[in-house]
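In the design runs reported in the main text, the only information available to the sequence generator was the tokenized backbone. The following block is the verbatim input for one such run; it is reproduced so that readers can re-run the procedure and compare outputs position by position.
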């Protein structure tokens, strides 16, 4: 996903970034979602870097976006 952010010029407004990714579908372990919609849900109004955008996205992406279902990185 980070490679998509190279298409943007930073700093970038949240609304502009959401529009740029409105046709991008993310595939998760248990479904999919629209990247533009997730960007639109980010709390920041502007992003100074790709890292800022990625950090905000990690807070709005569904649980399915992280790893395989029913797996944990904790000690077992």
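Verbatim output:
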């Amino acid at each position: 996903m980070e490679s998509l952010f190279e298409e943007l010029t930073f700093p970038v407004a949240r609304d502009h970034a959401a529009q740029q990714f409105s046709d991008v579908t993310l595939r998760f372990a248990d479904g999919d979602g629209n990247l533009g919609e997730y960007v639109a849900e980010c709390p920041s109004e502007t992003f100074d870097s790709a890292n800022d955008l990625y950090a905000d996205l990690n807070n709005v992406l569904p649980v399915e976006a992280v790893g395989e279902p029913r797996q944990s990185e904790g000690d077992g």
